[in-house]
Each structure stands twice: as C-alpha cells, then as structure tokens.
Design brief:
single chain, 413 residues, BirA Bifunctional Protein, domain 2, 2 domains, 5-stranded mixed sheet, 38% helix, binds adenosine-5'-triphosphate, binds magnesium ion
C-alpha cells in the first residue's frame, strides 16, 4: 500500500526548507526590532472563535473551514487564520489588562478547504503580526514600514503595497447603500456568489475575483468618498506618514478585505509575477475585535504573510545550500572510531562534519561529493598508526599532510 498526502497539502523538503528557515528567521529578526514578541496558539479552536469574528457570510466561514465534531461533541475548527486565535488567547490570559499596548507575531500552518492550485493549498502557512492598544495611524504606517523592511531584507523587489480605508461601523452603512444602488442595475451580470452577497453583504462584491464581477465593478463608488471626518483624517495621516517614511504605496479604493472584523486601514502586498494568486501579505485594522471577544476596548492592527507564496518568490534569490566543512572517509575499524571522534569534536563546536563509516573508499568519496563537502580527510590503519593523514581541498584538489589531532582544530574557527 502506497500512501499519498491529503489533497491540498504539501511536503516541504530540503533545499526548500532552507528557504523557509531563512524567511522565518529574517522575519523574526525584523519584527523584534519593531518590538514584536512571539506568541504560539493552538491550531484548533472552538468553531465560534472564527464564525463570530471572521463573519458568517465570509468565504472562509461559508465554504472553507475544516470543522469537525470531536469525541466530546464539541464543534472544533482547524484555524483558517491567526488573528482570531491570538485575540482569544490574549483576552483569556488577561494580557490586555496588564499590557494594554503590546505587539505579537506568530508563524504556523492554517487550514482552508479551497480548490488546490498554484499558490493555493488546504494547509498553508502564515507569518503574522498583530499590534494592540494604539489607534494612531502612525502605527499603521510603521506596520507597513516593517513589511517593507522585511521584503527589502529578503531582496524582494517589484512588490506593490496597496492601501485603503474601509471606514468604521458609523460610516460604512452609507457606503454599503451606495454599493447596493450601484449594483442594483448590474445584478444580472454578477456571479452566483455575488448575487447572494448583494443581499447578505454587498461590500464583498468589491472583493470578488470572478473576472465578470471585476469588470462590472468599474466605476463603482469609492469607499474613500464615504468616510466620515475621523476616518478620513486617520487615512490622511497614514498616507502622509508613509510618504514621510519613504514607504512606497498605492491607494486602491476597491480593496475591501473579505473578513468582517476590519475597520479603517486595510492593505495588501501584491507581486505581479505570481499570476492569479498574487497577494503575498494582507492585513488591516480591527479596532472592535478585542471587545467582541470580551476584552477591554483595544484598537488593533495586523497582517499575515503567505509563506508558500513568499517562498516561491524567494526561490530565485535563495541562499546557497549548507555544506559540510569536513568529510572523513574511514577504512577499517580503528579508523572509523577515530573519524567519529574528530567529527564529534567538530560538531560540539558547531561545525558540520560527516563520516564515511564503512564501505569502499570510492563509495565514501561519492557521498562526500554529493554532500558538497569542502574538505575530506582519509584515514586508514596506517594513518591511525602514524597520526597523520591527507587533507584534501575538494575545490582546488590540493592535498596536505595534517596531524589527526590538528585536523579538528583547523575547522573550529
Ligand atoms: P486570497 O485573495 O488569495 O484568497 P485571502 O484574502 O483569502 O487571499 P488572507 O486571509 O488575507 O488571504 O491571508 C493572507 C495571505 O495568506 C494571503 O495574502 C496569501 O498570501 C496567503 N493565503 C491565503 N490563503 C491561502 C491558501 N489557500 N494557500 C496559500 N496561501 C494562502
Ligand atoms: Mg481566500
């Protein structure tokens, strides 16, 4: 019997895992300089954590959640996103009471039942950041700056940072009416989902990816014309601050994110080269969510970055694969033991060394080549007896005689 991974899941093998690690450690490093600390939350939550926050009429809740009933008859959902679990955890642990202004980041798998295709999986990974307790738009600008710094550090270029404001619960109803009025005459051309959205949540029509709907949206009312004075001022300060910080951005009034909890600032980072699934990161402000989870009034903003899409962008600029500093080929029992001691001395001091164990010299050297070892040391009975062996530089092919006691020390710094 041969098994296959579940549809929409992927195995991530070396050398791709090197890119993942590079991305994760670069992100953690950048986030730290902006004051974010890591939080780890479970991959499953009570289903309501998501249905209540993301919205009953969102794509995620309507058709993408991995929900099941556990043996204790609870409805449990594999997290489709990270914000709701983070807020749940912070409220539950009383963090907002002690630290009203705090910043967190997370990394890990998310689960959505989607049609698998390039850049879209059922288990995928996000790196996300969430900042709480500050409603100043300068924080929004800093979050976007942090994303820009990360993308820069990773060497990613030609990314477009698109921003918008979707207002607040006070001004959004007016926009909603304007959108409804606009699509009233265009209902026939909309996709089946959008026909339904027209009744349940017309703003989602603005987020639909079906080409017919995208076309029909041309000339739709702009949310920016419907903001109240406070939301408009918030957005103005955001764009002014971004300009001041030199963060490039595009204002995109059609950017209405698919989750219910967003207020005011929303944004997406888009890579033209990725084709249809081109958003690598997305986020926004969610000033009401903490309260909805039973916490104190706490404004917040965050984003999530799609790791798989980032990794595919990084594949071209990937760091070189790691190689062992030394490969020790051994012929005979005493030599194998000596090889192991030299290798373990190196490993203890943090240097990658490999041993050949047994087998012909030819097959051991083949392995050394495959691993890309920089140097090889060949030990047999004679070398053990004399205490000297040939050290071979695999690039230049130069050889030198080296004392076995010296061999480990040579690679330690
Ligand atoms: P999309 O428009 O591509 O469906 P989304 O709005 O559903 O994205 P978010 O919930 O904002 O996505 O998630 C943030 C990021 O996570 C996305 O920009 C994308 O890079 C990544 N992402 C979302 N869904 C998937 C998926 N099924 N597979 C791989 N990456 C994903
Ligand atoms: Mg989606």
């Amino acid at each position: 019997m041969k098994y296959k991974g579940v549809k929409g899941t992927r195995d991530i093998l070396p050398p791709e895992t090197d890119i993942w690690r590079h991305l994760e450690s670069t992100a953690a490093g950048v986030f730290q300089t902006f004051g974010f600390r890591e939080i780890r939350v479970p991959v499953m939550e009570e289903t309501q954590v998501f249905t209540r926050s993301i919205g009953e009429t969102s794509d995620i809740v309507e058709k993408e959640m991995y929900t099941f009933t556990d043996r204790g008859n609870r409805s449990v959902t594999l997290r489709p996103e990270g914000t709701a679990p983070v807020v749940r955890a912070l409220v539950q642990n009383g963090v907002f009471v002690e630290h009203p202004a705090s910043k967190f980041f997370y990394m890990g798998p998310m689960f959505r039942y989607e049609r698998p295709q390039a850049g879209r999986y059922r288990q995928f990974h996000q790196i996300g950041a969430e900042a709480f307790g500050i409603d100043d738009p300068r924080l929004d600008a800093e979050i976007l700056l942090m994303l820009t710094v990360l993308l820069d550090k990773l060497g990613l270029k030609n990314l477009d940072c698109q921003i918008n404001s979707i207002g607040c619960p006070q001004c959004r109803p007016r926009f909603r009416e304007a959108v409804k009025a606009f699509f009233a005459e265009r209902l026939d051309g909309l996709c089946a989902d959008c026909k339904r959205r027209y009744e349940t949540n017309p703003l989602r029509i603005m987020d639909c990816k079906v080409p017919a709907c995208v076309e029909l949206r041309a000339g739709a009312p702009s949310v920016l014309d419907h903001l109240d004075e406070a939301c408009a001022a918030h957005f103005r300060t955001l764009t002014d601050t971004l300009a001041h910080l030199g963060v490039p951005f595009t204002v995109k009034p059609t950017l209405v994110r698919g989750l219910d909890y967003y207020t005011r600032t929303t944004f997406e980072v888009v890579a033209g080269s990725l084709g249809a699934q081109n958003a690598v990161a997305a986020g926004g402000r969610y000033d009401k969510l903490v309260e909805e989870f039973g916490g104190p009034k706490t404004p917040a903003i965050g984003f999530a970055l799609g790791v798989e899409r980032m990794v595919s962008l990084l594949a071209e600029t990937a760091p070189p694969a790691p190689r062992p500093a030394l490969f020790i080929a051994a012929l005979g029992e005493p030599a194998a033991l000596r090889a192991l001691s030299i290798a373990s001395a190196l490993r203890k001091s943090g240097v990658w060394a490999e041993c050949g164990y047994s087998g012909s010299l030819k097959s051991q050297m083949r392995r050394a080549d495959k691993l890309g070892a920089r140097f090889t040391l060949i030990i047999g009975d004679e070398e053990v007896a004399s205490g000297f062996a040939q050290l071979r530089n695999m690039e230049t092919k130069e050889q030198e005689l080296i004392g076995l006691d010296e061999a480990a020390k040579r690679f330690m710094d």
